[in-house]
Amino acid sequence: MVGPNGAGKTTLLRILAGLARPTSGSVTRSDGRRSIGLLSHQSQLYGDLTAVENLAFAGRLYGVAEPTEQARARLASVGLAERADEPVRALSRGMVQRVAIARALLHGPRVLLLDEPFTGLDSQSSELTLRLLAAEQAAGRALVLVTHDAQEAWELATHAHLLVRGAWAFSGPREASLETFLRRCREATHG
């Protein structure tokens, strides 16, 4: 899902996650919030806790078996095994983003709501994240990914949506090429 600033992308993710109510319509979740993994603009991490403590805490909230071991495994999957015992406040912005991604994946949600997952990541971390998300998708998880840069996630996309001023400018199966999609986006947002 792409769209200009203020289009409603983050609001839509908050509604889907159950953190905000729609002004009209409704959202139905068959097994509640437990089936959702959310990566939002806020990391949802505690700065004074280590990366592993943050994830283990989240794991206990979700009823994850062996939360500390699972936390360490998820941190390894995002390339942070060596930094697991450092306080989050001591980590770079990109590392905090990777810890937040690990947190969203920790409880094995069926649906991942990802708001700008590549923010703050260098090219190597972006590639790692892309491979990780592709593996989650291949395992049957649904991804709803918001981005300002469609190119970042194009290979993951099965559908593409453009949100402009709270309404769908277009929505449907992914275009044959990124260039066609970007042209449609420019036409829809600039007239």
What would your notes on this structure say?
This protein is an alpha/beta fold and 191 residues long. The strands form 2 sheets. It has a 3-stranded parallel sheet with strand order 1-2-3, sandwiched between helices. It has a two-stranded antiparallel ribbon with strand order 4-5. Helix 2 packs across helix 3 and helix 2 runs parallel beside helix 4. The chain is globular, with a radius of gyration of 17 Å. The mean pLDDT is 92.
Annotation keywords:
191 residues; alpha/beta; 3-stranded parallel sheet; two-stranded antiparallel sheet; 5 strands
Number of strands: 5
What does the largest sheet look like?
3 strands, parallel
- Catalogue the unreliable spans: none
Helicity level, as a percent range? 40-55%
Number of helices: 7
Q: Report the C-alpha radius of gyration, rounded.
A: 17 Å
Class from helix and strand fractions: alpha/beta
Mean pLDDT, as a whole number?
92
Please list the strands of the largest sheet in the order they lie side by side.
Answer: 1-2-3
Instruction: Tell me the overall shape.
Output: globular
The succession of helices and strands, N to C, reads: HEHHHEHEHEEH
Distance between the termini: 19 Å
Strand content: 5-15%
